[in-house]
Amino acid sequence: MQVGLKCTLSDAHVDATQINSQRQVAVSISAIPEAIGRNIPLNLCLILDQSGSMEGRSLATVKQAAQRLIEKLSPGDRISIVTFNHKAKVLVPNQVIEDLDNLRIPLHQLEAAGGTSIDEGLRLGIEELAKGKKDAVSQAFLLTDGENEHGDNDRCLKLAQLATGYNLTLNTLGFGDAWNQDVLEKIADAGGGTLSFIEQPDQAVVEFSRLFDRIQSVGLTNAYLLLSLTPGIKLAELKPIAQVVPDAIELTVQQEGDVAIVRLGDLMVDAPRIVLANLYVGQLPEGKQTIATVQIRYDDPALGQEGLPSEIFPIEISAVTAFEPAINPEVQNHILALAKYRQTQIAEAKLQQGDRAGATTMLQTAAKTALQMGDQGAATVLQTSATQLQAGQDLSEADKKKTRLVSKTTLQVDES
Description:
Blueprint: E1 2-9, E2 13-15, E3 20-32, E4 42-49, H1 57-71, E5 78-84, E6 88-96, H2 101-108, H3 118-130, E7 137-144, H4 153-165, E8 169-175, H5 181-190, E9 192-198, H6 204-216, E10 218-229, E11 233-235, E12 241-245, E13 249-250, E14 254-256, E15 259-268, E16 273-282, E17 287-300, E18 305-309, E19 313-320, H7 329-352, H8 356-372, H9 376-390, H10 397-408
Parallel strand pairs: 2-19, 4-5, 4-7, 7-8, 8-9
Antiparallel strand pairs: 1-3, 3-16, 5-6, 10-15, 10-17, 11-16, 12-13, 12-16, 14-15, 17-18, 17-19
């Protein structure tokens, strides 16, 4: 397995007479298989809410979704199941897939009762997942329908950060509309995974299956982006690097000497991660110039190797005195995607501060941005929320969650 790397500037030209210019560079990173077929074992942990609010149809459909997911696992894959209410327990210890009946019985016997302590479930889930992480793609699916009433939200974030240190990926699924979006989003973002919204119980099977297809395409793990800037080139001070595909996420940048380092997590074969770096370019002499280099450091679980370096990729720009823009439309779309996300964040902050007019204006702006990038689904959701606020109506919990989710990614037809 190798790294596929592509770097594209928002504008490949820069004015040689300008003292300072601003450019964005989109870095696309994926895994390239050397042979067809998956040969990396999966190490999957399901962390399931069994609190009293899950009673009835909700828990029944989650058990069905979990069962179907387990049946998709291959020989050599590993599974563990942790459940939680106001306390947590290991329902199925981490084990290699052998006898499916040993997994069906404890799932079938699961009953709903008690309160909700997400961090306890997360703690046990991480412990179980860590037991089978060697030379495997290790992923957790954390599902809950409620607030962390018996737990500590700050501890959830710390546990998610701890999981990344063990090369474990955390995906979160909000069930219904009473769960805390901020908590689940922070867990998924810090854990290198994705956040999903299961609005109706019947959607559980489809969403579990979608996530499973995504993790099956993981080829490399624990990837880091290393960005080295040449003299005269600087990263923006505020929010310099963000992921825009598959989800919009603000990324944390660590500086080691002249190298900016960003953790990416898993690299998929058929779905690249794309990050956008905001650069300030000082005055350059005329001609083609290298302004930065990019390298990826990663683990290859199929080979059992860690900390492998990719080739070093130069980012070049042409400095010209007779300046004419050479704008890349694909990078412009990534810039719009990030703007849509940040505009929606501003709208949410204004709404929390009681500034309904300001929130309405920013949601309308985000809707226009979505239209500019051709994301009709997001534009519809964002404009609908703006119209409701403008009419003096409050947004329902489901409306707020849909608004946040469409700001992070392109809305698919079957999600609308």
